[in-house]
Design brief:
The chain is mainly alpha-helical. The protein has one domain. It is 74% helix and 0% strand. It is built from 16 helices and no strands. The longest helix is centred in the N-terminal third of the chain and has 36 residues.
Length: 351
C-alpha cells in the first residue's frame, strides 16, 4: 500500500522551504534580496531548518527502499540521473544565473543586462551568488541527493550480499531515538560548517532506507507518540534557549545538537503524517507530482519577483503575500508548461 503521507510531508516541506526563503528577505541573514533585519524571523528560519532538509533526505531514503523493490539497481541509478543529475545541470545553466543576476543588481546596484551578465555567473567567489558569482542555489539539495543516492547503492548491495535484512526487525523505542547519533557522527564529513553536510545527508538517507521503511518501527513510534511529543518539546525548548540566551555556551555544540534534534522532529513528523495525512485526492496527487519541479523553479522565481515587488509597495506584509502568491502560481505554471514538451520534461526531470 502506498504511503501517501510521505508525498504530503514532502509537499508541505517544499512549501515551507518557499516560505522560509521569503522570510530570508526580511531576516538578519544574508540573501539575494534584502528588505529587513528581523531577528525573530531569523530564529524561525533556524528552528525550521533543524528538521526541514533532513526530512527530505529521510523521505528520499524511505521511497528509495520501495523503489529498489520494483527496480534493478541499474534502473534505479538511471532514474537518479534523469531525475536529479540532469535537472541539477539544467538549474546551474538556466535558473541559477538569474539568482546571481538579481543578487548583483540589488547588492551592487550595477546596471547590466542579462546577456552581458551571463558569463560573469561562472566566476567562482563565495558560492552565495550575492555578488553575481557562481551559486548552487536550491540545486545544492538536488546535487547532494544524487551523490547520496549513488553512495548508498554499494552499501545496499553489500548488505544484500551478506543477507542483512532490517525490514522486519523489531527495535526498541530507545534504540530508534539513539539512531539519531549516526547523522551526528557523520555531520563533520564534507560539511560546509553552516548546517549543510554530505555525511549527515547520507546518514539520514540510510536511516530512512533501513529503519523508517520498517513497518514495525512505525508501529513502535505510533505506540510511543506521547513520549515523542514530550521529548521534542523539551529538546526544542533547550535549543531555543541555547541559541538565544546561551550563545557562548551553546555555540560549540549547536550544529551537533541541531542534527540530533532534527532526527527527533523527523520521528514526530512521520507519526503525525501517518495519523493525519495518509490520504490523497486529485489536487494532492498533482501537487505531489509537481513538487520536485516546483522546488527547482521556486527560488529563481521568488528572487526575480521580490526584486520588483519591493519597488512597487513598501508594505512588508503586502510584499510577502504577493511574493508568496506569485512564486507558487508561477512555479506551478512553469511546471504545467514544461510538462507539455519532451525537451523540457527531459531537462527538468519531469515524468
Amino acid at each position: 500500500m502506498r504511503k501517501y503521507y510521505l508525498d504530503t510531508l514532502r509537499l508541505l516541506a517544499i512549501l515551507i522551504v518557499i516560505i522560509l526563503h521569503i522570510f530570508l528577505i526580511y531576516s538578519s541573514l544574508p540573501y539575494y534580496i534584502k528588505q529587513g533585519n528581523s531577528d525573530f524571523l531569523t530564529y524561525i528560519i533556524i528552528l525550521f531548518l533543524v528538521w526541514l532538509m533532513p526530512l527530505l533526505f529521510t523521505i528520499a531514503g524511505i521511497t528509495s527502499f520501495y523503489s529498489l523493490k520494483k527496480r534493478s539497481v541499474g534502473e534505479y541509478l538511471k532514474e537518479r540521473v534523469q531525475r536529479l543529475l540532469i535537472p541539477f545541470i539544467s538549474a546551474m545553466l538556466i535558473l541559477n544565473p538569474i539568482l546571481s543576476f538579481y543578487g548583483l543588481k540589488f547588492h551592487e546596484n550595477i546596471q547590466i543586462n542579462y546577456l552581458e551578465f551571463y558569463p560573469i555567473f561562472f566566476k567562482i567567489t563565495d558560492l552565495t551568488g550575492y555578488d553575481g558569482g557562481l551559486t548552487l542555489g536550491p540545486a545544492w539539495f538536488i546535487l547532494f541527493l544524487f551523490i547520496v543516492s549513488c553512495l548508498a547503492v554499494p552499501v545496499i548491495l553489500l548488505l544484500r550480499k551478506y543477507k542483512v535484512d532490517l525490514s522486519n526487525k523489531d527495535f526498541s523505542i530507545f534504540t530508534i531515538i539513539l539512531m539519531g547519533l549516526i547523522p551526528v557522527i557523520f555531520y563533520p564529513i564534507l560539511t560546509s560548517g553552516e548546517g549543510k553536510s554530505l555525511g549527515m545527508s547520507f546518514a539520514f538517507f540510510l536511516l530512512g532506507y533501513y529503519l523508517l521503511s520498517n513497518n514495525n518501527v512505525m508501529i513502535k513510534l505510533d505506540k510511543n507518540k506521547f513520549l515523542m511529543v514530550v521529548l521534542t518539546f523539551i529538546m526544542t525548548s533547550i535549543f531555543i534557549i541555547g541559541i538565544i540566551y546561551l550563545k557562548n555556551v551553546f555555540e560549540p555544540i549547536t550544529f551537533y545538537y541541531q542534527v540530533f534534534l532534527g532526527w527527533i522532529w523527523i520521528l514526530l513528523l512521520l507519526i503525525i503524517g501517518k495519523i493525519f495525512l495518509n490520504k490523497t485526492n486529485n489536487a494532492i496527487q498533482y501537487l505531489s507530482e509537481s513538487s520536485f519541479t516546483i522546488y527547482i523553479f521556486h527560488e529563481t522565481i521568488l528572487v526575480a519577483v521580490a526584486y520588483y515587488i519591493i519597488q512597487i509597495t513598501s508594505n512588508i506584509y503586502i510584499q510577502m503575500l504577493l511574493i508568496f502568491i506569485l512564486t507558487i502560481s508561477l512555479s506551478i505554471g512553469f511546471y504545467a508548461l514544461c510538462k507539455q514538451f519532451k525537451i523540457t520534461r527531459f531537462i527538468f526531470g519531469i515524468k
